[in-house]
Amino acid sequence: MATPSIPAGTGDSVTVPKNNRWVLLGIMLALLLSMLDGLIVGTAMPTVVAHLGGLDHMSWVVTGYTLATACSTPVWGKLGDLFNRKTVFLTSVALFIAASVLCGTAGSMTELIIFRIIQGLGAGGMGAGAFSLIGALLPPRERGKYQGMTAGVMAVGQLGGPLVGGFVTSHLSWQWAFYINVPVGVICIAWCWLLLRLPPAQRRAKATIDWLGIMFLTGAISALVLAATWAGSTYAWLSWQITGLAVLALTLLAAFIVTERRATEPLMPLRIYSRHRNFPIAAILLTASGITVFGATLYLPLYQQVVQGASAANSGLLLLPMMIATLITSSIAGKVMTATGRYKIFPVLGTLLMAVGMGLLSTMNTGTPRTLTSLYMVVLGAGTGLCMQMSSTIAQNAVELRDIGSASAATNLFRNLGGSIGIAIFASLFTGTVTARPTQTARGLIYIHDVAHATHLIFLTGACIGTAALIASVLIEEVPLRGKSAAAASAVPDAQTA
Predict the structure, then answer these.
(1) From 35-44, 102-111, 220-229, 412-421, the region with the lowest mean pLDDT
(2) Cα Rg of the chain (Å, integer)
(3) Cβ-based neighbour number of residue 103 at 10 Å
(4) At what angle do helices 445-474 and 278-306 cross, to 10 degrees?
(5) pLDDT, tens digit, for every residue of 49-73?
(6) Which residue, 38, 298, 346, 418, is most buried by CB atoms nearer than 10 A?
(7) Closest Cα to residue 300, out of 391, 379, 385?
(8) Where are the alpha helices (DSSP H) in 53-146?
(9) Separation in Å, CA 109 to CA 26, 48, 113
């Protein structure tokens, strides 16, 4: 069978290797590594704090990592567009590994936070690089064949992270929560170094770095993530601290847009948003999906443990029905998309199922059996599988290959920001509900009822967000996907002059 290539006129031409499944498996090891790290470290944090102290600074182990990841993602994506994508990607993996070793050698909570920030910088490049390489290797029409692989990696990461974290903290020292990244990262680097073959990147005539754009976007993302992290927990939602951060984020975002219009080589070209309406719509869907998935993965296990009496030791397995449904529907949708070239129905149906699934979960109370909860999770997982990966493909099909790195970084950023904002909103709802009654006891009946009511509000909010995403998905225009032939390259009306 002939190997498909990216059509001419979309940037640099990349030939898909015959052993592309093996090549993609190496790239996806980086995604798995990033997902496992967050979940393993989260599980191991009580043990880390017991050894290093610094309980009052523990949240910065997560916040610092999240900030560094979000801020560096667009920069890594642009570097991949300007220079060699493979080299940039492998550099980010190497940085992540080195920072993991440093985290394991930390002698205080301050050192750990600093090393986690460095680790987050590497994670930003791993996420942006992995998706941009997939976008460069596979035309959108062909990508559906491999959608199940990405969903499978995410499922393994979601389920395996807590289990590995529990094993590490029970049988090994806390340092192995970080050292375990080293062998997986080394395999990823060796695998991609040997099997990943890309022609030299088609560099710009003058590869300049948009330093002003980096500064303004980093500041805007930092202010937004900090506001989302602190709102409702450290400070009240309408406090001057949160309001000030929100105003600062909007001001820096406005400055960033002005800068990008004037920059010779903008960090995040505005043309990726204006070239076709599908890109901003896909960004909305990814943000909504991020909010939904993060909310479900955080609060479903909590509900099942506190209200339904499930074992905390098997918390990762509690999400199995949702993950299996995500894997199955993502694989089916990808194959149908590749065979027919049709795809609009999937995000529409996916957001509908997401809204219905979150709505069903919001009906749970203290008497809901686990079997019924699992069925509701299947509905939500099916919707996520139809929507999340398909939205990434739609977004990448709406831009030229020369901007694939920036577009991939942007979609990854929206997904992560959606998760951060969702966590902030849901944490505020949960804290406000559960701490509302001063007479509650940690194991008492009042606490159980409060947790059930809090999760009801969380999932009801998720259903509203899913409904908004459904409205956005109806506006998607089903343009042809770039495929094997140049004829398919007319996917999106060209607007290079924009």
Answers:
(1) 35-44
(2) 22
(3) 26
(4) 160
(5) 778 876 666 667 877 887 888 888 8
(6) 346
(7) 379
(8) 59-82, 85-104, 109-137, 140-143
(9) 33, 9, 6
